[in-house]
Design a protein that fits this description.
The protein is an alpha/beta fold and 252 residues long. The chain has twelve helices and five strands. Strand 4, helix 8 and strand 5 form a beta-alpha-beta unit. The N terminus and C terminus are likely disordered.
Length: 252
Amino acid sequence: MPFLRGAVAFLILLPALLCAREPPRRILFIGNSYTGQIRNMLTRVVAASPHRATHLEFVTPGGKTLEFHAHDPPTLARIRNGNWDLVVLQDQSQTPALFPEKFLAAAAVLHAAIAKSGARTAYYETWGRRDGDARNAHRFPDYAGMQAALTRAYRQAAKRDEALLVPVGDAWRRVRTDRPDLGRDLYQQDGSHPSPPGAYLAACCFYGALFGKNAGAVRFDGGLSRENAAYLRRIAAEAIRDDAPARPRGRP
């Protein structure tokens, strides 16, 4: 009888468990050009997958911070009225490293609005600049220091809000460590924004994190060589796998 009662209880809970793992069908991305410049690659990765019916929308005015979005009526209305399953947040490329308190405060405002709408929050952990932050060289003279600060801030926000973390910055770090030549090629000439390989790496990270799938299974090479595309998919999959123990249960 105890076994039977346990089996019945499991069957009662099964729909809820399945629902918790159901991949998002409507996703809103809020950020700036770091999101806008992976939009095409991410859209094509999703379109080439079993999740091609997923609806993606983007709010990505150039140079804007989460502080801007947190007090922008159109952005807040978009969150409130979109019937989203997931809202992805990305701050200006320097802010979480230079001003973590400002980042965390703005993220908290947006997370509250997202939670109130019934959606879940995800944080898009971005990458450090190729040669450090030239305008703040006394703080971040090189890539490694800037990446560590960005990663720390995004992880703090994700832990606080029990949100999904998309570890693009960590995947970036792995490429730069393992294959420095390709690591530098992840950037455009400005040493900041993503090149096609960088956008592809980010898109593969998103695919794996958002849908709970192995990024290595992506069937789109993004116009890259077959070898480089396969390598970047593997790195994305490893970054997501290694981040998995820190994710809240029930998240993708």
